[in-house]
């Protein structure tokens, strides 16, 4: 029997606004459907389970006439019929693809089942990464269809902020791994596995004694001018004196502070429950803050409600401007505590305990600072021996 031709398809019109069909005489089940709207589509009618007469009948839309040529549609029909002969169901596979999970489905389950087990600060960061970067790019994509090349290009688009780019990649990799475990993606196909992370250089800024002096003077001046609150100024001072993390200071409660022992006992932190050791100077700051906090349970309360102060950025920017310091972060105060401790001869394990590090390699970043006291000692010893070896001063 004859094959349908392009001329016949062009002449095909819907009759009475109802679908009208033109069937191919050479390829069983292959045809064209014309709708009342004028749209024409290539279709394939077949039976599942290898094509037996008792099997359910399926209708598969191959594509729109105009977007597909007649020859292209015929080739698709032949491939589909070959799959039917192997016992497959092309229409069923197409349906499965339509209902396959999107990445947003993985996130919803992650948000419901996994995030509640993470610390609030971690959850906040994950949500920020998802909402601002991952979701706009991949939210409606089928989990199974996301490729390594796409992830690599997405990661490279964030090269201006390499640290954040790597954290986003880590979250996406975690989501893809969970998708595999939850049966939403083929196991062993994580598209993030072969994407190379950007190199990260640890940013370590140590403040000198003169810079610390400038910060102290700036805090006093700004408080006197009422440009920053005494609460904000005291919080910055405690960060500089204790080496604690910003979140640990801002969320501190009076019930955690033991003035007699000079310690703040945190029930939870980035590294779990831990003590923060308070020097006499740090205790002095807290005693000055106590009447300002009033009845609040928080050491550094928000001025508007009984909640902790949530942001020191504005106050810190003012302090740095007043002290004429550029590029200094609040976290650099923590680095400075460690560097001064090393310079005074404290061991790295002791510094790790002071800063609450859970892993020794975290403290090892300060190992190079330890050269200073050792070099000083070497110079003193060398000078003494030099006098013995060369009493006339000859080198």
Q: What would your notes on this structure say?
A:
The chain has about 400 residues and is of the alpha+beta class. It folds into 3 domains: about 5-100, Double Stranded RNA Binding Domain; about 105-180; about 210-330, Intergrase catalytic core (hpI Integrase, Chain A, Orthogonal Bundle), CATH 1.10.443.10. Helix content is about 50%, strand content about 10%. The chain contains 16 helices and 7 strands. A 4-stranded antiparallel β-sheet has the order 1-2-3-4, with helices on one face. A hairpin with a 5-residue loop joins strand 2 (about 30-35) and strand 3. Helix 5 crosses helix 7, helix 8 (about 210-225) packs across helix 12 and helix 13 runs antiparallel to helix 14. The longest helix is centred in the middle third of the chain and has 20 residues, at about 160-180. The protein is elongated, with a radius of gyration of 35 Å. The protein starts with 5 loop residues before the first helix and ends in a 6-residue tail after the last helix. About 25% of the residues are buried.
């Amino acid at each position: 029997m004859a094959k349908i031709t392009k001329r016949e398809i062009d002449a095909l019109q819907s009759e009475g606004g109802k679908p009208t069909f033109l069937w191919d005489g050479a390829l069983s089940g292959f045809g064209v459907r014309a709708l009342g709207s004028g749209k024409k589509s290539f279709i394939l009618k077949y039976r599942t389970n290898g094509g037996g007469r008792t099997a359910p009948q399926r209708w598969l839309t191959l594509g729109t006439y105009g977007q597909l040529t007649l020859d292209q549609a015929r080739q698709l029909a032949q491939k589909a019929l070959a799959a039917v002969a192997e016992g497959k169901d092309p229409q069923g596979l197409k349906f499965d693809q339509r209902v396959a999970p999107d990445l947003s489905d993985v996130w919803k389950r992650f948000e419901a089942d996994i995030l509640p087990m993470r610390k609030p600060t971690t959850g906040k960061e994950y949500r920020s990464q998802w909402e601002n970067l991952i979701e706009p790019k991949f939210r409606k994509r089928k989990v199974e269809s996301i490729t390594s090349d796409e992830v690599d290009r997405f990661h490279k688009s964030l090269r201006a902020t390499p640290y954040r780019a790597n954290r986003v990649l880590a979250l996406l990799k975690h989501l893809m791994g969970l998708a595999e475990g939850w049966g939403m993606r083929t196991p062993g196909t994580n598209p993030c596995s072969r994407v190379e992370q950007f190199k990260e250089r640890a940013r370590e800024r140590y403040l000198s004694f003169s810079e610390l002096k400038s910060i102290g003077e700036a805090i006093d001046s700004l408080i006197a001018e009422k440009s920053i609150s005494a609460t904000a100024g005291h919080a910055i001072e405690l960060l500089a004196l204790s080496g604690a993390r910003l979140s640990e200071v801002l969320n501190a409660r009076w019930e955690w502070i033991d003035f007699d022992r000079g310690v703040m006992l945190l029930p939870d932190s980035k590294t779990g429950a831990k003590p923060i050791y308070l020097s006499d100077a740090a205790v002095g700051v807290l005693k000055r803050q106590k009447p300002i906090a009033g009845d609040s349970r928080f050491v550094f309360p928000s001025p508007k409600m009984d909640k902790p102060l949530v942001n020191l950025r504005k106050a810190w920017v003012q302090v740095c401007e007043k002290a004429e310091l550029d590029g200094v972060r609040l976290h650099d105060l923590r680095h400075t505590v460690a560097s001064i401790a090393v310079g005074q001869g404290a061991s790295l394990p002791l510094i790790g305990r002071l800063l609450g590090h859970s892993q020794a390699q975290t403290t090892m970043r300060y190992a190079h600072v330890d050269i200073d006291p050792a070099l000083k000692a070497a110079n003193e010893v060398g000078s003494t021996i030099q006098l013995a070896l060369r009493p006339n001063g000859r080198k």
